[in-house]
Amino acid sequence: MNEVFLLAIAYLIGSIPTAVWVSQKYFGLDIREHGSGNAGATNTFRILGKKAGIAVMIIDMLKGFTAVKLAYLSVYAINDTNDAFTNLQVALGLLAVIGHIFPLFAGFKGGKGIATLFGMILGIQWIVALCLVAVFLIMLLLTRYVSLSSITAGIAFPVLLLFIFKGQETAYTLFAISTALLVILTHHKNINRLIHGNESKVDLKKLKKKKDS
Length: 213
Prior knowledge:
By secondary structure, the protein is an all-alpha fold. It folds into two domains: 1-124, no CATH class; 126-213, no CATH class. It is 70% helix and 0% strand. It has helices at residues 3-14, 18-27, 41-48, 50-69, 83-101, 114-124, 126-143, 146-163, 170-186, 188-195, 204-212. It starts with a helix and ends with a helix.
């Protein structure tokens, strides 16, 4: 299948504004007008609750995962271990993340793309994705800051590829570095709040009580 067509599909998949549609259809509001104003899973958790947040997070992850798997519809699928195949996966995943951040179906005002990015990495190299989950959870337990945990996991991505999972394709490594920079850029407001001590924390004890009740 034509690669340009697949890239377009990947962007459209990423453009599905999960948080916006869920908030509008089931809660009668636009999630972008509440909380942090972000159309992502984290803000959905805060404003609409755990069930809505989990649903949004899973669907946003599936967007990145599905976009990457579109590579199997290309001519490069004959050999899914070559550089061309991986490069196409990276391009497809990147278009999905861009679609999430600038969604066609929601006035180009979306989320930060963290869940979609994770789904993309999961689709390309699941073991790296699990390592990033571990980094995220450890940082969350230590600091209770979701934003700082996301930033740390984003920075850990290229570090893991360069120093632990060596031998990756150049395009994939460059993408990992770009991803770290993108995560930092999209979290600039959170970083500012962290510096000034105004960033909100997750109440892990409260979540545990809810789970045990």
